[in-house]
Specification:
With 116 residues, the chain is an alpha+beta fold. It is built from four helices and four strands.
Length: 116
């Protein structure tokens, strides 16, 4: 699978039953913000293929944790839409009449994530 976003490529391959992902920035800013992390940056710039578990280990504290797998798998699902929309910080797509009943505030990052 090859997924191209505004400024990045997300590639997926099956290596004997192990799914690996490669993420590279092709133009402009990194839409996922991974390039701002000094630990993740070398993997992106070198075009390294990493397993799903390795990417999760690198991105679990990022604003879009585990996005490579989530995006890739969502587009492989026959019931998935052709476009995915992510709310900006401070916004939520939950209807107002449901939002007040939720015990949490919706976000793309895990509630336990600490910002770097």
């Amino acid at each position: 699978m090859h997924l191209r976003t505004k400024g990045a490529d997300d590639l997926e391959r099956d290596m004997g039953g192990m799914i690996e992902f490669q993420y590279t920035i092709v133009a402009g800013e990194d839409p996922l913000g991974y390039d701002k992390n000094a630990v993740i940056r070398p993997y992106i710039h070198a075009g390294v293929w990493l397993s799903d578990q390795q990417w999760v280990g690198l991105t679990y504290l990022e604003h879009y944790p585990d996005a490579l797998r989530r995006i890739s798998y969502s587009f492989e699902n026959a019931n998935s839409g052709d476009m995915h929309i992510v709310a900006s910080d401070g916004w939520d797509f939950t209807p107002y009449y449901v939002r007040s009943m939720l015990p949490y505030r919706a976000t793309s990052a895990p509630a336990t994530a600490k910002r770097r």
